[in-house]
TrEMBL record:
InterPro entries found in the cross-reference section: Homeodomain-like_sf (IPR009057), HTH_TetR (IPR001647)
DNA-binding region as annotated in the record: 32-51
One term of GO molecular function: DNA binding
Protein keywords: DNA-binding
Protein known as: TetR/AcrR family transcriptional regulator
UniProt domain HTH tetR-type: residue ranges: 9-69
Length: 199
């Protein structure tokens, strides 16, 4: 039986899938060439060929997460503008990306290790998304709204669970607060944003 040979792009995608799983399950310090190689049955040399270094792997992962962050938010905003979704979905997409998908942990790790340039793909993706969202909506504070929603999501990803517990609050209270703030800033009532749209 012959094994199908994967393209370089397919091999990179498989490695990045494994890297993201490690990021989510074990934290950013677990995203090493050795660990990713072990997860997918590839050698250290093979991963060096595709990414150049551990920093290259992490940068590629940051690029992937950044693109997914901006694509998910942009799609939720597009659907909201067409009446197919609401601000709650936008907040949930941002919080899920930085929490469950590991973007917050990756960003904090890069800041703490002094590798701030590795954050550029995430920041550039968010900037590009804001530029697209601004078109036709120049009267809205899209940059400011993006700033506080993303910062809240990162803070929640890093400290939300223990802080909510220490304060005796439900785990998702930060997300609920940001939803209310975004609903208020868009001028929708909470009932309308939850799906009870006016005819």
């Amino acid at each position: 039986m012959t094994r199908e040979r994967l393209s370089a792009e397919q091999s990179r995608a498989i490695a990045l899938d494994a890297a993201q799983r490690l990021l989510i399950e074990e934290g950013p310090q677990a995203v090493t060439l050795k660990a990713v190689g072990a997860a997918i049955g590839k050698s250290h040399a093979n991963l060096l060929h595709h990414f150049g270094s551990a920093a290259g792997l992490q940068a590629a992962l940051a690029t992937r997460i950044g693109e997914r962050v901006s694509a998910g938010i942009a799609e939720a905003v597009r659907r909201s503008r067409q009446g197919e979704a609401d601000p709650i979905e936008i907040v949930d997409r941002v919080f899920d990306t930085f929490g469950r998908e590991g973007a917050g942990a990756l960003a904090s790790w890069m800041i703490l290790t002094g590798d701030r340039e590795a954050l550029d793909p995430i920041l550039e993706s968010i900037h590009s998304m804001v530029e697209r969202l601004r078109e036709g909506h120049e009267d809205r504070p899209i940059e400011e709204t993006t700033l506080w929603v993303v910062l809240a999501a990162i803070g929640d990803a890093l400290l939300g669970e223990p802080l909510a517990k220490a304060l005796g609050l439900p785990r998702d209270r930060a997300r609920e607060v940001v939803r209310r703030l975004l609903i208020g800033s868009t001028g929708l009532s909470e009932g309308v944003a939850a799906g009870e749209r006016a005819p």
